[in-house]
Design goal:
By secondary structure, this protein is of the alpha+beta class. The chain is built from five helices and six strands.
């Protein structure tokens, strides 16, 4: 993912490649506030999506989706939508979580359309958020308010 679509991630392929397996394992420890899901076709992972919740007491009502990616050859089959649906369903059951944020490269129209169709709304732009070699990439900042996604009367 990091190598084939560097503008889609703030993580860097070369830097991650140098990390030890132990460092990587420590970063992907999972619980309801921090997890990664995978999408599989014929037992091969073709997509991913991750979530982490803010740890500060004042920010614990917020979480972040990251790393949503589907291999090029598997795109157009609704896999990214299924990943997002699963992420939203899973975090929707987390006590006290009210909103999910995501940052998407401004030129990635397909991803922005997907997130909008899932109920995310744009609230800002991070200009020059990523710098890859000498080229900058803006990010659109989007949020999904879970009470609105759940609908009226559905509770927390």
């Amino acid at each position: 993912m990091l190598e084939s679509a560097p503008e889609a991630f703030s993580s860097d392929y070369e830097q991650n490649k140098r990390s030890s397996l132990r460092d990587f394992a420590n970063r992907i420890q999972t619980d309801e506030d921090n997890f990664i899901i995978g999408a599989f076709v014929n037992s091969k992972m073709v997509g991913t999506g991750g979530f982490y919740r803010e740890s500060s007491r004042k920010l614990r009502h917020r979480g972040h989706v990251w790393g949503v990616f589907v291999k090029q050859e598997e795109r157009g089959q609704g896999i990214a939508r299924k990943i997002c649906q699963e992420l939203i369903a899973r975090v929707g059951r987390v006590d006290g979580l009210e909103q999910i944020h995501i940052a998407v490269t401004s030129t990635n129209q397909a991803a922005k359309r997907l997130y909008e169709s899932m109920g995310f709304v744009a609230y800002g732009k991070a200009p020059k958020a990523l710098k890859i070699e000498d080229k900058y990439h803006d990010e659109d900042l989007m949020v999904l308010f879970l009470d609105e996604a759940r609908g009226p009367g559905s509770g927390p």
